[in-house]
């Protein structure tokens, strides 16, 4: 068929020629429907570029799969149904991509928070250890036996040859000093 005869063909006749590999028939179908499909896609998706990509994909798939495609009814209905399905798939893909991005952001933020918490925890532990180290020697020993070794006041008193009341007062004084110093350091540092 020559150029003039292609332009006189119906959409269905053009598609039959496309199935046979007729590139001119394909070009005529493209010219007839590209802007109609593009306009429809543009109304349904956010960007002109996405609409153009979706429309071009319809025609690319039409050419690639031409020998396998069987259209029952009008070609225009087939093309618009293909576009509708492409738009649906586009939104599903976009949603999944959005969900992946949200998940990435969640884990990224969680990692940053965890890292930040770890840094603050390590800094706090360092500050506490510095303040414990600054306690008077006997008070420090009693405090560490009480808190780290979890010995009772009675056990500490027997171990250090002190009265239970002295141990109790030393632990209370150590806690009071640590609370004051740590409270001051925390509110002036963080």
Automatic annotation (TrEMBL):
Signal peptide (UniProt feature, chain positions): none
Record keywords, A-Z: Sigma factor, Transcription, Transcription regulation
Domain of life: Bacteria
Coiled-coil stretches noted in the UniProt entry, renumbered to this chain: none
Domain RNA polymerase sigma factor 70 region 4 type, chain residue ranges per copy: 126-176
Family annotation (SUPFAM superfamilies): Sigma2 domain of RNA polymerase sigma factors, Sigma3 and sigma4 domains of RNA polymerase sigma factors
Residue ranges of domain RNA polymerase sigma-70 region in the record: 29-94
Family assignment from sequence similarity: Belongs to the sigma-70 factor family. ECF subfamily.
Record NCBIfam families: sigma70-ECF
Protein name in UniProt: RNA polymerase sigma factor
